[in-house]
Amino acid sequence: MSEQYQKMWTELGLDLKAHDALLGVLSEAYQKIFMAQDNRPQAMSYFDFVMSEVHGLRIKELLDEKAAGRKIIGSYCVFVPEEIALAANATLIGLCTGADFATEEVEKYLPRNTCALIKSAFGFKLGRVCPYLETTDMVVGENTCDGKKKAYESFKEIINNLYVMDLPQVKSANGKALLKAEYVRFKEAVEQLTGVKVTVESLKAAIKLVNAKRAAMLRLYQLRAADPAPISGLDALLANQVFFYDNPERFTASVNKICDELEQRIKENTGAFPAKLPRILVSGCPQAMPNWKLPAIIETSGAVIVGEESCVGERGVRNLVDGSGDSVDEMLDAIVERYFQVDCAIFTPNCDRLQHIEQMAKAYHADGVIHYGLQFCTPYLMESMPVQKALEQKNIPCLRIETDYSMEDMGQLKTRVEAFIEQLK
Amino acid sequence: MSSFAGVDIGSRSIELVLVDAAGQILQQMQADTGFDPMAEAKRMLAEVEYQQIMATGYGRNLFEISFDATTVTEIKAHACGARACFPTAETVLDIGGQDSKAIALFPNGKVKKFEMNDRCAAGTGKFLEIMAKALGFSLSEFSEQALAATSDINISSMCTVFAESEVTSLIGRGQSRQAIARGLHQSVVRRVKTMLNRVSTEGDIVFTGGVANNACMVQFLAETLQRQILVPPQPQFIGAYGAALLAAGL
Ligand code: SF4
Ligand code: SF4
Asked: A349: cis peptide before it, omega within 30°?
C-alpha cells in the first residue's frame, strides 16, 4: 500500500523509514500467523483486507471525516465511552499498544520495569509511527492502574492533546457517582471540541450503534462454544482488535456476516480445527494489536482458544446500554450503569471477574484457563494467584503466564504451553 | 529386537536413551550440545538403531523438523522417567543446565501442575557451574567443600552476575571458600523451595536432571524441606529415558 499513501503519512508527520519498517514486520507477522491457518471462515477476508489497509484506507477515511467537520478521539481503555463521543459528532479510536517501539527513547521517560502496554503507547508516539495517534484531535488517558496514572503525567510532555479522565477504584455508590461526574465532564469536553451538543436523539442513535457492535461480538463469542470450534481464537481476537478502530456500521455488518457463516459451519459440523482438541480460555491483560504472541503459540501447539476474558474480549463488550431513556441525563445514567460493571483488575475487591472466568470456562467448554499477565502489571499479576487457586479448587487447570512483547522467551513459553496442553489431554 | 529411542536436547547437553519394548534400558549416551545441536544429535543417532523416536528438551521442535520425530515437553518426559524409577512418587524436581521445574503428579502419574523458573539462570545448573568456577572448584569439589563447611555465609544476590561479583569480593575479604560454597548451595535451595511449595507441600520428591548428582543439593533440600529426596541412578538421563518410554508407548 506504500506509495499511494506516502504523502498522507508525510503530512501526518510520520517517520517514514521507521513506519515502513513497522509495516514490514506487521505484514510479515500477519502472513505467518494468520494466513498460514487452515480452514479459515471465508468472511475473514474482510479482516485480511482491513489489515492490509490498516494504515492506509482507514486513515484516509478518518481524515475525510475530519475534513467534513468531525473530530477524532483516541483512547487507551474500554472505560472511555464511545457512545458519548459519537453523540457529539466525534469518532472514537482505540489506540493499539501491542508492540515495542523506540524502546531506548521510551526509557528516557519511563522506568524499565513499566508494563509493555504503557511503554508501547509512548513508543508509538516517540517513534512517530502511528497514523491513528497523529490523526487524533484529543487523546483520553484514564486513571486506571498506577502505571498508567503516573505515565500520563509524563505523556503530557510529548503529546499536546491529552485529556485525563479519572476513574473509580471501588464499586461503591461513591465510585459510581465519580464515574457519572467524569462522564458528564467528558461529554462537555467533547462538545467543546466538536462544537456539537449531545441531544436525546444523537445519544440514542449512538447507543444503538455501539450496542449493535457489541451484540455482534457477543454473538461471535457464543458460537465458539461449539465443538469443533468454528473459528480460531486468533481470528476471533483479530476481529476484537479491529473492533477498536473500524467504522462501527461496517464492522458490525462484517462480524454478523462471519457469524452467519459460522452458524452454517456448526450445522455442517465443520470447524477451524478438528473436534475434541483441548480447549483453552485465555484470561487477563488485554492483548492489543498486534500482540498475537500467546495465541499463536497456543494454537500451533495443538489446542484451540475458545474465549478471551479480557478487555480485548468479553470483558470489553459484555453488557449493553439501556437506550430507552427520554433525556440525555437518563441515558447517561444508563451508560454509567453499563460501564460500571466492567470488572477490570484495578478495582478492589474485584470478585465479579472470578465469577466471569468460571462462567466463561463453563459456557465455552474450556478444559483449562491460561492466565495471561504482562510483566510488571501489578493488578493482573496479583489477581492471577487467587484466580488460579479458585479454579484449581473447581478442578479447572490453570497456567499462569507472565510475559511481555519481546520474542526472547518464545522457547520457554512454548514449553510451558505445550506442557499445559499435554496436561489437558 | 525392537528398540525405542528418547533424545533430550538440552541447552548444555544432549542425552540419548534406548529402551526395549519392556522399557529396559539398552543403551545411553551423552554429548555436549555445542553450537550445532542438530549435527550433534545426528552423529549420536547414527550409532544406534530404533523403531520409534521421541524428542524432548528445548531443542525438540528443531529436532522434530529435522528428523521427522514426535515430541514431548520436558515436563511430561521427566514425569514419566521419574515414575518409572519410583512408581508412587507424586512430586518431581528437575534441575538442568538452564532451567528448573517442579512437577506435581496425580496418583496415576499424570501431570497435575508444574512451575518453571523464569528467564533468568538463578536456581539452575548454570548458576552452580559459574559459582564453582568463581571459587576455583571443580563441580564435584564444589559440592564436597560445601558439605564439609562448618559455617555458612549468606549470599544475598540471586542474579548470577551479581552473585559472581559478591563471591569475588567475599574471597577478597578472606572469607572461607567452603563457607561461601555452602551459602551458594543454600541460596539455590531457597529458590527451589518456593517453586516446589507452589506445586506440592508433602510426600517424597524425585530429583532429576544433572544437578541431582550434586550431593550437597540433595542433602540441603532434604533438610530444608523435611521431605525425602529420591535420586534415580544417572539422573541426567531421566528426560531422555522418559521420552524413550513414551516412544515405546509405555
Ligand atoms: S484492563 Fe482495565 S485499564 Fe486496561 S483497558 Fe481494561 S479496563 Fe482499561
Ligand atoms: S493494568 Fe496492567 S497491563 Fe494495563 S496498563 Fe496497567 S500495568 Fe499495564
From this structure: yes
